[in-house]
Design goal:
Helices cover 42% and strands 23% of the residues. With 224 residues, it is of the alpha+beta class. Helix 2 (39-51) crosses helix 3 (72-85).
Amino acid sequence: MGGIVVLFSIFITVSRYIANLILQGEGLTLDFKHSITDSRKIARSLVAFANTKGGTLLIGVKDNGNVSGVNSDEEYYMIEAASQLYCKPKVPFGVTKWDINGKTVLEVNVTPSKRKPHKAPDKLGSYKAYIRVNDENVLASPIQLKIWKAEKIRKPIKFRLTETENLLLDYLKANEHISIAGYSRLAFIPMIEAENTLIALTAMDILEYHNEMNEDVFSIKKSD
């Protein structure tokens, strides 16, 4: 009898865990997939999570949150193909299989990568870098690509902020964010200098970058 109670308790715990994930709804770090029919498409989700803050794919869950279940072996092999064949470089992932009322749900976890940018094929087969924005996978902007490149070559050095950089930080302490053009006007410097400075400060974790309504903006880096 005790064994039955333990098994029932485990079942309830598992159900609540998945239910709580589903209740969160799709967002920056969570995506639902009814099933996997195209490894290349799922590769875009894997690289978007790896290029952003990491995340979880629930395979066997519809967009409305209803559990549909999947064939776990077939789905796993398609995820593995997505990771190894269609992600450049490969995106590591972990999978946990859950049994919910007789239906199988796969929880696929991806951690933030230090090997950005990861790329996956678009609909025409060209490899592109994707990031996660809200609940969507979108193409990384040219500025984001420059930031990743700057991060790869940055070195831990001591430096003194220039007058225009201090002006920028003072502005951002009083304002939510600034665009490249806005910084150029604020500091009376050329656009290319403003862009390079913002990219460098972002690569050094002083600023953080956002693309809002197709506009590149920067804000003070928030502590995690």
